[in-house]
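I hope you will forgive my troubling you with a question about protein structure. I set the record out below, with my sincere thanks for your time.
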Amino acid sequence: MKVILIQFLCHFALIVCLNANDSDSMKILGVGNSFTRNATKFLPQMISSDPKINAEVGVAYIGGCDLEKHVTLANAHEQDESKGNQYQYTLDGRTKMTGASLKAILTAKNWDYITIQQVSSKSYKPESFHPYADDLITYIKKYQPDAKIVIHETWAHSPASPRVKIWNLSPGDMYQKLHRNYTDLAQKYDSKIIPVGTAFHQAKTTPEWSFEATPVDVRELNARLSWPEDKDNLPVNRKTLHNDVYWKKKSDSEERAVFADGYHANYRGEYLGVLVWIESFFGTPATGVTYRPESISAAQAESLKKVAREAIEIYRSKSRKHKAEPAVAAPSE
């Protein structure tokens, strides 16, 4: 009997300990699309590299999902639980659910912060934000009433993106429009902002990351190059933060072809995004971050840290005039 009692007490103590550890960690959920994944790509590694940070980061995403679709899927699931199950859910970079509903992910943990964003292709259009952002926030609050809503400011496309010509919209003009839309949304809900879009914009004004776009002829590249023989022969631009040109499987076969993008982040842009996230949520100055992926040189990392730090400071300066604040935590000294 004494042995059983001891075993029970040990088991109970372990549960209490685990729950205490769980409650001590900051829990962040990003609701969005591939841009959410881009901006959090290196976040688990960066958190692990800092013993002062205790956090879990989840991402609920659907590729190309805009605010309206999030709401449509949520409402469909409320009416019929067999519908709306299109989300991928990762926690600290590991896949936890596939084909999940937003409700299932929202209720998976007691989230402290939940981020939302508009899809890149609509981020510069003010009419695309409402009423969908309002409805999404209402839905989130239904299942996580104590969570704080944080606005993830996405970024403009690359100067080399086909969208520049197709939309007749320069990256600078796109940034100004999306920046205004995200700021307005944050002010409406007195929410804080993760200024990743501002960081991308600032980077493009520096000698390290500014460049004159060279038109890329995808047809010519596909006629001249073949996979895998030419997998390393794509045009290289070491100043871009975007995935301008890349190899991708064709939709109807296993063959690969060259595609033009120019809006998703490449590994340099992903590192910049994570630097902004880490300072916004944990107060760790981006310039003090020690983690650096092997794919990024020490010089590039230092440059991107300075850009991230500047973007945070720009937002802090503006937040003194407006209620939309840039960071969850103030920088630690």
